[in-house]
Amino acid sequence: MREESPAPEKEGQSGNFIHTLIEKDLAPGGRFEGKRVHTRFPPEPNGYLHIGHAKAVCIDFGTAEKFGGLCNLRMDDTNPTRENEEYVDAIKEDIRWLGFSWGDRFFYASDYFPKMYELAEDLIRRGLAYVCELTPGQMREYRGDLTHPAKSPYRDRTPQESLDLFRRMRAGEFEDGRMTLRAKIDLASGNFNLRDPVLYRINHLPHHRTGTQWCIYPMYDFAHPIEDALEGVTHSLCTLEFEDHRPLYDWVIEHVDLPAKPRQIEFARLGINNTVMSKRKLRALVERGVVSGWDDPRMPTLCGLRRRGYTPAAIRSFCEQIGVAKVNSTVDYGFLEHCLREDLNRHARRAMAVLEPVRLILTNYPEGKTETFEVENNPEDPSAGTRPVTFSRELWIERGDFMEVPPKKYFRLFPGNEVRLKTAYIVRCTGCEKDARGRVTAVYAEYDPQTRGGNAPDGRKVKSTIHWVDAKTAADAEVRLYGRLFSVPDPDAGDFLREVNPESLKVLTGCKVEPWLVGAKPEERFQFMRQGYFCADCRDSSPRRPVFNRAVSLKDSYRPKAK
Questions:
Q1: Residue 244: closest CA among 260, 277, 270, 221
Q2: Domain 353-467 listed as CATH 2.40.240.10
Q3: Phi, psi at residue 428, to the nearest 5°?
Q4: Any idea where the domains of the chain sit in the sequence?
Q5: DSSP code string of 15-47
Q6: Secondary structure of 344-361 in the HEC alphabet?
Q7: pLDDT per residue over 265-297, tens digit each?
Q8: What is the enclosing helix (H) or strand (E) of 240?
Q9: 271 with 330: CB under 8 angstroms?
Q10: Neighbour tally for 114: CB within 10 Å
Q11: How many CB atoms sit inside 10 A of residue 257's CB?
Q12: Catalytic hit among 279, 298, 306, 341
């Protein structure tokens, strides 16, 4: 079931059923009475974390924080096919960036391979597991349906025979896919996850940590409950697709010798429109060169969002406000942008930047004269103070702030019209200069020296205020305007590669910015007046070549649901 959710409810409005269940578990007579809450976040290191993982991170670590408990970080590295240390390092960095800590509780699933193998042998000895020689195709063929049970001609193998074969699998005697180890549960179960599920498969690829030490690897459904129990986890919080796997989780906990009995609780995963969050699809975007890498600012990866200018506070606020539910839904991407605007509006330093510059010449301003104006750094935060901005006869303004023949309700510069230059003076446009192709190369205006600070002593009204930078001191910069990577709300519905938005990136060179912006630190965020929120690119920006990424526009089309 999938519902559209354009306006998510706050957690306090919808309630957090996970916290309610845990409170019951901790209460007198509860399952974990007198115990400390212990959760874990167990990503597979086969890709970078994305915004969907951020919700799980916030739930796992946030739940532990709420109850004064602990949360482990564990790499679920049971499949050597695409796992490597690059992803391990990236995952750790992303979690730290979000503001969470696992202390000294960092583990790998591969740490438990010897113990898992030991427990698997014990299941075989007790007649609860057997070696099966069905091929993957045969296993699908013999899977059965709701009216017919599954079949395996190897189910009645003696424990001795299965144990011998399992050890030979471990020794590398058989090729990939030749055999599996299966649990002996119920071939007629209405839950297909209990129809003698595979516990181990053969894979001769080298593992990123254990090399060629192992050529058999445990399946997630077998490994995960064992890992949780060995680490003392009380509550194993996972996404809704594992709800049907919970009986198998509980079966493993019940039938192997473990020091704890964790409880699995499922919650709805995060869906956002206008993007994809499948690791397979994200990897395809990278490998096919659609994006520049996992940290491309158009990607929903945490490193991509970070590079674009998103803050940990905005992402955590987003995750908190969408709440915790039991039904999958799709959240409007606009709400994520809304959370970022709210955060940056409070904290981002203001600056003036002209992205498509044209020269403004004040013909009656004294040549060689320079003035300094104090401009507020953040009107939302008076403690941020002010900064000096120089002003002279020639300025840079936005090309879009002048029209020779304007339409109705255009209140910026055109011949005869007045505008206010932010913090400086009121100016009246007198004309323009064009090149041979008719393109405007300069705008002419006269300033009113009686309006210093932007106020008219005679009380006349000026309908528009525009930003500017001093041509004498302005620095050149590159600005990258990022939009939605996909042009349709649900790119997963078809061939997602065909839905890539060709207008998702526009690179502007020769932009003019205040000179102090040359020293912007990587990931430092600003509001460019009238333009949007930007951050200094962490890879490409330097004092010699400042590069700024647009995190989000100023306009907020998202409207939170009325309370």
A1: 221
A2: yes
A3: -115, 130
A4: 13-26+35-267, 279-347+477-552, 353-467
A5: --HHHHHHHHHHSTTSTTTTPPPEEEE---SSS
A6: HHHHCEEECEECCEEEEE
A7: 999 999 999 999 999 999 999 999 999 999 999
A8: none
A9: yes
A10: 11
A11: 8
A12: 279
69: three-class secondary structure by DSSP: coil
Q: How far is the C-alpha of 29 from the C-alpha of 25, rounded, in Å?
A: 8
Q: What is the mean pLDDT of residues 386-391?
A: 97
What is the per-residue pLDDT for 561? Answer: 58
Question: Across the strands, what pairs with 37?
Answer: none
* pTM listed for this prediction: 0.91
- The CATH number fitting domain 279-347+477-552, selected from 1.10.10.60, 3.30.70.1020, 2.40.240.10, 3.90.320.10: 2.40.240.10
For residue 268, the 8-state DSSP code is: P
Collapsing DSSP to helix, strand or coil, 374 comes out as strand
Tokens of 439: 């393109």
The total number of residues shown for the chain amounts to 563
| 199: number of Cβ within 10 Å | 26
d(CA 97, CA 313): 10
Average pLDDT of span 516-542: 97
Q: How buried is 82 (Cβ within 10 angstroms: 0-12 exposed, 13-18 middle, 19+ buried)? A: middle
Residue with tokens 């590669």: 497
Question: What pLDDT shows up at residue 329?
Answer: 85
- Catalytic site includes residue 279: yes
| Amino acid in the structure at residue 68 | G
- CA 336, CA 54: separation in Å to the nearest integer? 12
Q: Residue 555's pLDDT is what?
A: 81
- pLDDT tens column, 35-66: 999 999 999 999 999 999 999 999 999 999 99
Segment holding 551, helix H or strand E: strand 547-552
Q: Beta-carbon neighbour count of residue 515 at 10 Å?
A: 15
Maximum Cα–Cα distance for the chain, whole Å? Answer: 102
Which position among 157, 184, 269, 484 bears the catalytic label? 269
Residue of 9, 11, 35, 44 marked active site: 44
Question: Which one-letter amino acid corresponds to residue 563?
Answer: K
Token pair for residue 271?
């869906």
Q: Residue 402 corresponds to which tokens in the numbers above? A: 């002048």
Rounded Cα distance between 353 and 511, Å, is 7
Q: What is the mean pLDDT of residues 106-133?
A: 98
Please tell me the predicted confidence (pLDDT) of residue 328. Answer: 87
pLDDT in tens, 364-380: 999 999 999 999 999 99
The angle formed by the CA atoms of residues 66, 70 and 74, to the nearest 5 degrees, is 125
Cα angle for residues 322, 326, 331 (degrees, 5° grid): 35
Whether 521 sits among the annotated catalytic residues: the reply is: no
> Do 13-26+35-267 and 279-347+477-552 show the same overall fold?
no
Topology of domain 13-26+35-267, CATH: Rossmann fold (3.40.50)
DSSP, res 531: T
Q: CA–CA separation, 176 vs 183, rounded Å?
A: 19
The yes-or-no answer on residue 514 being catalytic is no
Task: Work out whether the CA dihedral 157, 163, 168, 171 comes out positive or negative.
Answer: positive
For 424-457, the pLDDT digits (tens) are: 999 999 999 999 999 999 999 999 999 999 889 9
